[in-house]
């Protein structure tokens, strides 16, 4: 079967293609349109489809719309209920239902030649669950899904065995841990359904002063669900003006304490829910998806405090991943033997020759070194910042060595420096990228390997002074382990950096600036390199140095001045 998965209704629109049970491509619309998150999650935008991502997926496989056996849409309008019946205040929510019901016609208009009858509706949380369990390396696993909302629920607990899903529990709206966290995000002056990761970072600067009060109302229930009424946040901290600068003094004040308290309670409830699932399945593996599964602090507590031996989280765990899950679910339902996703590098890529052509077309001087790793390691050891563009782009919100900014972790000031380069808040941490075979020496209290940057580890005390730039205020780090066999160019660079510095770790943060999607194509990379204070740009095997770029530009500028 040739199945195109589509996520469109809420946020992070995306597309994925599964052919004969194998994941061929997956990408988020924002990487093409350059609109962060693709669109805002409001009813008036629910009609927008990931048209650019859908077309690219088909081109990647050499398919036409009429070649598709099915289009899997990750929402089933037949399961939806009116907002007021779910206890939600959203007078325009009926627009979402209208647009979802007409999705076959919208898709056929966007992809001429597509038969609307090929469109299959996949329940939202089933699509999330499939994106975890069917994309994972495990044939059998328990599955836990939590997010803001689906058709009428915010949670699914179950089990996959041989491609078949058994639902054990779900939680009806309005109770939603995702909506609870979104509400807090908005109260703290951040962008709702976008900046929840900032709340997670801010929480580390606070103390859980309100945890006991939160435990009284936010709790797991005996049936595998939970209660999560949204409190009046103002009783603990005033709302923050979104346009006001968050000064350092505020990082450790009432807002940080509130963030810390809610984060702690979220972690406790998630642990309780995971234990409930394990009590009923006894499985060795838990797979997770849904936007809440991007909370890497909570993921680590589930790994540490539940009987599951392994926790596997879908790298595009948010709504973007439902495109992948919907396609896999339809393929499995059609009798296909689906195979695990090959990794997160499922987006666009260019050949070495194509990248060289881009550089020549932009009149950018570059070299193709015999030992690229050694030259990049030299830049990093000299405290330069490197923009790294290599291979197919990542599916999901984490930069994993395809579209990354790299720096020296031994220089504590690089945390502030990179946040300034990216134009973001100074309480935000940056992450360590570490050789997989060295990770256990440096990091503990988390699963290894950790290739998708979805867990938090404790930095061993003897290493904290050696890599201060990547150690968060609470002594933890959100790590990415690198296997040189899977990422040879990146692995070689880490080895070369270790030979120079004794450190098998570099700073890794996403290749973008605040408010913009991650760099995806060569033009994006060149634009960022031209506008941000980055010392070098790697594009595949090619290396551009800022000094050489300015030196090449200087004679041209001088000649223009002389002519005037």
UniProtKB/TrEMBL annotation:
Domain of life: Bacteria
Protein keywords: Transferase
InterPro entries according to UniProt: ATPase_NBD (IPR043129), Carbam_trans_C (IPR031730), Carbam_trans_C_sf (IPR038152), Carbtransf_dom (IPR003696), DHBP_synth_RibB-like_a/b_dom (IPR017945), NodU/CmcH_Carbamoyltrnsfr (IPR051338)
Start and end residues of each Carbamoyltransferase C-terminal domain: 377-546
GO molecular function, one term: transferase activity
Cited Pfam families: Carbam_trans_C, Carbam_trans_N
Domain Carbamoyltransferase: 2-72, 117-328
Membership in a protein family: Belongs to the NodU/CmcH family.
Official protein name in the record: Carbamoyltransferase
Lineage, broadest ranks: Bacteria, Bacillati, Actinomycetota, Actinomycetes, Micrococcales
């Amino acid at each position: 079967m040739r199945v195109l998965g589509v996520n469109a209704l809420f946020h992070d629109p995306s597309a994925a293609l599964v052919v004969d049970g194998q994941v061929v491509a997956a990408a988020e619309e924002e990487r093409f349109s350059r609109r962060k998150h693709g669109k805002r999650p409001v009813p008036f935008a629910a009609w927008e489809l990931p048209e650019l991502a859908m077309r690219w997926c088909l081109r990647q496989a050499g398919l036409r719309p009429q070649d598709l056996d099915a289009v899997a849409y990750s929402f089933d309008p037949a399961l939806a209920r009116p907002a007021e019946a779910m206890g939600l205040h959203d007078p325009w929510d009926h627009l979402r239902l209208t647009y979802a019901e007409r999705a076959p016609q919208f898709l056929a208009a966007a992809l001429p030649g597509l038969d609307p009858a090929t469109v299959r509706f996949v329940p939202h949380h089933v699509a999330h669950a499939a994106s975890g369990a069917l994309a994972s390396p495990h044939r059998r696993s328990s599955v836990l899904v939590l997010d803001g909302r689906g058709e009428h629920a915010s949670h699914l607990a179950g089990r996959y065995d041989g491609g078949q899903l058994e639902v054990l529990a779900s939680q009806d709206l309005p109770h939603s841990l995702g909506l609870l966290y979104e509400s807090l995000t908005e109260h703290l002056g951040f962008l709702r359904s976008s900046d929840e990761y900032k709340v997670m970072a801010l929480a580390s600067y606070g103390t859980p002063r309100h945890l006991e009060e939160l435990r009284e109302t936010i709790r797991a229930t005996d049936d595998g669900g939970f209660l999560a009424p949204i409190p009046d946040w103002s009783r603990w901290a005033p709302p923050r003006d979104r346009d006001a600068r968050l000064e350092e003094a505020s990082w450790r004040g009432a807002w940080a304490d509130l963030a810390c308290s809610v984060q702690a309670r979220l972690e406790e409830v998630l642990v309780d829910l995971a234990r409930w699932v394990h009590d009923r399945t006894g499985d060795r593996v838990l797979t997770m998806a849904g936007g809440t599964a991007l909370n890497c602090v909570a993921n680590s507590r589930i790994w540490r405090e539940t009987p599951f031996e392994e926790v596997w989280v879908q790298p595009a765990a948010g709504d973007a991943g439902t495109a992948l899950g919907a396609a896999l679910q339809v393929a499995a339902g059609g009798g296909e033997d689906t195979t695990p996703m090959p990794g997160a590098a499922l987006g666009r890529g260019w050949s070495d020759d194509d990248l060289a052509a881009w550089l020549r077309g932009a009149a950018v001087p570059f070299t193709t070194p015999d030992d690229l790793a050694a030259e990049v390691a030299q830049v990093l050891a000299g405290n330069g910042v490197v923009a790294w563009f290599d291979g197919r782009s990542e599916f999901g919100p984490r930069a994993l060595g395809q579209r990354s900014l790299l720096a020296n972790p031994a220089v504590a000031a690089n945390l502030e420096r990179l946040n300034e380069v990216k134009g973001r808040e100074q309480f935000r941490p940056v992450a360590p990228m570490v050789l997989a075979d060295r990770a256990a020496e440096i990091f503990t209290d988390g699963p290894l390997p950790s290739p998708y940057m979805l867990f938090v580890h404790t930095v061993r005390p003897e290493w904290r002074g050696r890599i201060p730039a990547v150690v968060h205020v609470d002594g933890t780090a959100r790590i990415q382990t690198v296997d040189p066999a899977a990422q040879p160019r990146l692995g070689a660079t880490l080895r070369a950096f270790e030979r120079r510095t004794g450190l098998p770790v570099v700073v890794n943060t996403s290749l973008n600036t605040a408010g913009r999607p991650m760099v995806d194509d060569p033009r994006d990379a060149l634009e960022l390199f031209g506008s941000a204070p980055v010392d070098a740009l790697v594009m595949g095997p090619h290396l551009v140095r800022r000094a050489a770029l300015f030196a090449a530009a200087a004679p041209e500028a001088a000649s223009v001045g002389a002519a005037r």
